[in-house]
Amino acid sequence: MSNHELLFVGLFYAGLPIGAEPAGGKLGIPKTLSSEEPVHLLLVQVFDKFAIVNLGRLDKLEGDTFNVDSLLAAGVINKVRDGLKVLGTGQLTRSITVEAHQFSKSAVEKIQKAGGTAQVIGAAAQ
């Protein structure tokens, strides 16, 4: 699942799921909806538990090779959790080598354009 997928949780009408009965009995909540009834679509954004680092942050750090251990030691990330993901936010002005569990498409493009290497490392940390 993508870090930014939205999951459909349910339709809500008057604060209750469609067809739900409140503790005191039915409030006339319809089982089907018309276009004139107020409906709220509840979407929940689901995030994997990856440590995230942006390319702009890596560009400001000393050195030209970055991995989980070096980023932990530098205090850039606090926990690895399910792994390390590199995002393409920010400018990359030099060639660097980055080892991570996942890369965004833009991060890979920027790293390669700068003459660097994006290396996907094994299964996510447990």
Explain what this protein looks like in three dimensions:
The chain is of the alpha/beta class and 126 residues long. It has two domains: 6-45, no CATH class; 51-120, Ribosomal Protein L15, Chain: K, domain 2. Helix content is 17%, strand content 29%. The protein has three helices and nine strands. A three-stranded antiparallel β-sheet has the order 2-1-3, with no helix packed on it. The chain has a three-stranded parallel β-sheet with strand order 4-6-8. It has a three-stranded parallel β-sheet with strand order 5-7-9. A hairpin with a 2-residue loop joins strand 1 (6-13) and strand 2 (16-17). The longest helix has 9 residues, at 105-113. It is globular.
Residue runs with pLDDT of under 50 for 5 or more positions: 1-16, 26-30, 41-46
Instruction: Please describe the biggest sheet, giving its number of strands, its sense, and whether it closes into a barrel.
Output: 3 strands, antiparallel
The N- and C-terminal alpha carbons lie at a distance of 17 Å
The CATH topology of the largest domain is what? Ribosomal Protein L15, Chain: K, domain 2
Helix content: 10-25%
